[in-house]
Amino acid sequence: MAEKIASARISVESSALLKELNDSLPFDRELYYEDIRGSRAHAYMLMKQGIISPEDYEAIEEGLKRILEEIESGEFRFDGGEEDIHMAIESRLTSMIGDAGKRLHTARSRNDQVAVDFRMYVLAKSAQIGGLLLELISSLLELSREHRDVLLPGMTHLQHAQPINFAYHMLAYASMFRRDYERFVDSCKRNDYSPLGCAALAGTPHPIERKITAERLGFRAPTLNCLDSVSDRDFALEILFNIATMMMHISRMSEEFIIWSSSEFSFIRLSDKHATGSSIMPQKKNPDIPELLRGKSGRAYGNLMALLTVMKGLPLAYNKDTQEDKEGVFDSVKTATLSLMVLREMIEEMEVLAENMEAACAKGHLSATDLADHLVTEVGLPFRDAYHIVGNVVNHAESLGKDISQLTVEELREVDERIDEAALSILDNRVCMNARESEGGTGSISTGRQIDSMSEWLESERERFEKDLSRLFSR
Ligand code: ARG
Fold it and tell me: Is 147 a catalytic residue?
């Protein structure tokens, strides 16, 4: 057996069960790229500071590049019994280049090594998810432009409330996804500091220069305090929270798509690409994709709760509990990226059944509030009286088997003499919708303004993203 590189005091072979519980290599292999990147920067700094020789640096640099190739081509052997990706790479390096490989870990601990690797991963993934959110918002804007004036019943309590337009409804989601995007970007800014060089917990007596590694790894600066940097995982909690919140939005949108694609609603038709059949009922076309998107929020919440719980009682600094930070984040990141891509494809390929949305507006007396407002402003009634009169109009319409928008003036006046001719035009759902031109309202002009404002934001944000955030992608 090869000399154990990280256990100077342990002479016996670890128990198989201990290894099963202890080893993180089966999952932290995911961080191989960040680990090599971090090590290359560290070796460069050691050389610059005269801590290792230029020859050793060259050997380390060449060795690490070869290891990267080996891993990416599938040649690298992960079965050497090492505990984690850091040890696996270091041990391969040493077997390749000898003593120079053993010098790489000078002025470094796995505690700052894992902290910098994982931080780079989280930043890269936050930026990647941000990019996908921008694309999703772009598709929602496109859909809004295409169906700008399609009426649909706006709901509260899932009951018909007031007429709104479809574009306005989509813009509500675009606004949520925009805030999600901003959360990912904000957390990148907050966590854009390098923990490398913090060593085990207290810094190091070696004459290191943390600025050099921070700069080489694309961080804004080194972190302030070493004890904090190797202990905390709030940057990981942030991405978990950001993903959980975004998945909640995706889940609500999916829920609406499920309801809308039912035969009771028939507001949209999902592409056959995004529906599945039943094994027994030949007529079925099930909305499995939005159901799964809705269901996936569960694991995103779970991963967040799991890490919050892992972290809550840990004394400073590093504790092995912290190794539990990774699998949940990997899972949430995978869930988030796949969900965003699927949701976007589904939106782009679904059919909006505009006639059905508009026809549904002929139910539920959507213009009732507007009639009451009209009786206040044009007829001069106190609002509470107008409210009661309209309640009676609704009852009357129901007794006639009609929606209030279908009543004649005579029928209206059977309820109250004071209702005037002009009330008739008020009852039209499109008139009602377009009466709501208050800021952020559903009227066509107001909705158009929202589309324009969101499009402008998207354009400038795409530029900013290219400039400031694409550098965070590590692969
Ligand atoms: N595999 C470990 C982790 O993911 C790396 C850090 C190990 N540090 C230590 N002191 N045992 O957390």
Answer: no
